[in-house]
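Feature request disguised as a bug: please show the residue count (932) next to Nephrocystin 3-like N-terminal domain-containing protein in the output. Example input:
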Amino acid sequence: MAEFVALGASIIAVIQAAERIHKVCKFFIENVDNYPSDLRLILIETSSLKAVFQSLEFIDKHDSDASTFLKELKEPGGPFAGCLESVLELEKLVPPGMLPTGTNSTKRRKTESLVNALAWPFKRDKARTLLNDISQYKSTISTAVSVEILQDVQTVKRDIKEVAQKLTDAERHEICSWLDYSDPSLNHNAACALYEAGTGDWVLRTDEWKAWRDKKYRCLWIYGIPGAGKTILAAHLTEELAKLVQTNPSTQPKPGTKVACVYYYCFHARNQDETIPFLRWSVSQLCRKAASIPIQVYDIFKLGTQPTLTQLLVSLEAVLQYFGAVFVTVDAVDESQQRQNLLDVLVDLANDPRFSKLQLLVTSRQYLDIKEVMSKISHPLSMSNPHVEADIERYVVAKVRSTYKFRRWPSWLCDEVQHTLAVGAKGMFRWAVCQLDILRRLNDIGKIRLALNDLPETLDDTYIRILSSIDEEDRPLLRHTLWMISFHSATYTSNKLRVTDNIILSSYTAFSTQDSSANTNHLYTPDALEEVCGCLVTFLHGDVAGMPRRFASLAHYTVREFVESGRSISSPVRYFHCQPDEMSRAMFSSVAQYALNTDVHTPIQAKDSDDPEMLLLDNLENYCQISAIVSLDPLESMIAGDKTLMARVSELLSPSDPRFSGRNQMLSAFFCAPSLHITGTDMKTTHFWDLGWISASTDRDINVLVNLLFGAYRIMSETLASTLHPRRLISAEISVAFEHRDSYANKITVQFGGTVIEFFAQCSKVLDLGALPVRLLYGRLVSELQPPSIDPTTVLAQYSGPHDHDGCEKAYDCVTIVEWLLSLGADPDAPGYPVTPLQIAVANRDVNCIHALLQAGASLNRWGDANGAGWDPGTLMGVLYNGLHGNSPLYIAQHYDAFGFWASRATEFNSIAKLLVEMGAESLSTTQGLGT
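Example output, currently without the count:
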């Protein structure tokens, strides 16, 4: 103890000497006009030295664990001794005794003589040498004292430098690809392909456009009736903006900054809230255009989780720093699911000063909810005007002149078509497109003129006429195509994954048993399919692995609206009605049944393809194997309410199915494809196909339940669990393996063997499954078995286990589960186990759980049961927590780095340590000696 008294005394000696020197220098600087300039350097250096040693004084008094490095600093010849010697020598050069005393007038008379008495020219060199020595000693001591803080600072600096300078093009591409959720470029390119030169230019001549372009206001809203051509107009205006950004100097902000143009197309076929995808795409595009990744984006990417709305807005604000202005086109807001969310974001982007560099161009229908929002934040521009009617006439003339079939008609008939359609369109481009398709199919002049004299007035009437004219033998194929596109769109939200003509035609034959009217001996070709579908379906020509393919989608939002609405079911074409639940039920049943009846063939060449996911989806056997699983997310509610479909799911998810392993390999290959985003499925952190089954239970339903819970299918899990007697949950045992990432993101394979309840108690939180499995499974035991057969202490000991607790209170209700188990009588110390729940909670930085355990009476200093058997080394609990045995909770918090926990979490561990100290905890360890 004597050495620590001496240590404290030497610290105080340096502080007092620095104070005396500081006082002398301050006096000269304040009172002497021609004071030596070196005194200011001495003042600054001694002030800094005093601050460092005051920190040392605090550490010496309050942090006994710092004694090791303090001892090293105090060694003879060390920085403490050298610093004290130097500061005392420096004090001799500016002794406090030379300062004047007495009244102010006396002080003033003595001041001038003091400069001479200081004799600084003779002391300057020695003072500078001492200052240099003190600075070096201070630097050494400061580094030792602040090592943890410095490590954090260095980490941040390293990250910033890495993001700003060291990311390769490939790494930037990877981050941007991760951000890309829905790719609207296909929509943009398709709309550009349909654009007729000269149309839409009327917008460029309006005062509204010019004022918005010149940034006199931030948002321009163009609205129109269904079928008015808003999307094609948006594409044209976006192209004009791109030219403007590149060529017009007047749009350039102050020199050295960039101007960019970004677009996003909401699309009904994605069946999603477009808010998050819109922001992800916008941030990604701006990062690509800036050729830089902001640190805010990089930090989210490193977490390995999906970005939240708040994070994306912060990221957007960050990436805007690279630009002077950004023009953003958002098309078809009305096609977004839950569009109020998107409208709220548009309000923020238009009003918030953080996004003042954005110029928003928004298009939509004039629905009341959209009008109410947009009228407050934008300048409106209606498409109901003579300019649009003139554009339609221009379009009709161009199509009649360029279409081979029309060119064979007499010129007078073509003129009649052009005039009649231009007048009858009433501002609807879509209406004109459909009439041209109807007329194109006619070959008799009399019928053509009759059709021109009896044109349908609305789009609904137009679709009824088109569908009524379909040949009887082609009707089943067209309905199958409409249903197949709808099912595919509900399953795969990525534009990149449009259903191919090959899948439509092959599934038409394979699923024919579901429709007695289908022609199983058909000779349809891709050309014939496209001809049958006409203007109802758009086919984009491309290829898959070198094979020519056509990618199908509904031609327009109004097609979907009509076939899904009650208007179609009460019409003469009710055969084509596509009630979503009815369609989904029939298509899922067919797809799942086909998957169960066919072998799995994973194409080896898929990994070498530019589009491996499309290669997998272009073969019907593979398509059904993958789609039967991917569709579980969007169709879960419907499936859970249908016993027949649940039976299909049980077959698909049973490890005893001979196709189960091969199907899982195919799913893994499919979801490893780059830039693949599918709503629901890819938002999950776990998938049942990543679970390795070493030994399945003899109870098939239990195995299926494990896969459902592991895949986070909440509704189907609850449905299946409700049919199982609780005793089946505790009697069935499984043996599985899965990958886990440790604190340093290293992958380790861990195993588990035991009951289903124990498995999810251990793994729910590390797998981001939250409270559902434990509450569902153990809740059944508690409610239906008395006693519940499994002691709540057993569940608590394992449920306290591994997870990153950041934000999980809201997402997973972890603390509620712990409190629930404690209320059921769980012992907070979990006797019989090698590690206590409190030790684990400290290791997890789970402050709320720590409070819950302490309130329940958990021992502050218990370090695990010496007679308790450790978890098996290969299990998750064994890998992560066996090493905590013999160390008190406070010791774990103070020595977190020794247990392999992140140094970046130092602040959290220090806060926990402070809490435990205040509660009276001791730092104890059997491996390091008591009282360490």
